[in-house]
Amino acid sequence: MGKAPAFQFYIRDWLADPLLKMVCHQTKGIWIDILCYLWESPDRGKLEGKDEQFIKMLSCTTQEWETFCADASVTKFADVTKSNGIVTVCNRRMYREEKYRKNTRIRVNRFRAKRKSNASSNAPVTPPSSSSSSKEIKKESFMTLAKEVLKYLNFAGKKNFTPTKANLEPIIARLKEGHTEEECKTVIEKKNRDPDFNDKYFRPSTLFGPSKFEGYLNEREKEKVW
Fold this sequence. Notes:
single chain; 226 residues; mainly alpha; Arc Repressor Mutant, subunit A; 2 domains; three-stranded antiparallel sheet; globular; Phg_2220_C; Putative replication protein
């Protein structure tokens, strides 16, 4: 987990969360500790163990742990299940987004491996390579990354944008400027979690517009993690 040593935490969002307002302070304290452990978990967003293991890890009493589990069961701010003596604690958003990131990395790596394989098998015997073929590879790469970004936009915002020229061009333009796929996804995540952002502007032409993208990328995030 060294590549992502921290997650965004905003006090205003934490204090305003209606689900957490329904629980006691000791439950809130246990939950913020668990969020940190969930982030560092090998299966990010999900932790499994016995009751006594969680109690030891969290340095809480048996009563405090039982209260936390009961509060989570009632208010649903977290998924806590017990089966055959094993407790599973899951943060839905964190777990879902980590799965999406892993699947995206797999798809991108497959594409890159396929591209390298095709490039080596089609390589001419004589070294000189044409600049036109290099440009074609770059164009194909930008297109693939842009489609992945658009898929993530649809996933995060529950949208249904199709990979048309109009939807992909703004994303490709930002990639050509040197911005990364992760930066594009960061903008999507920020605006998706921004309570003041109008949903009708949650679209490629606005999010990746030349006059908007840099501002969105560098502004303070308003992300919830619980």
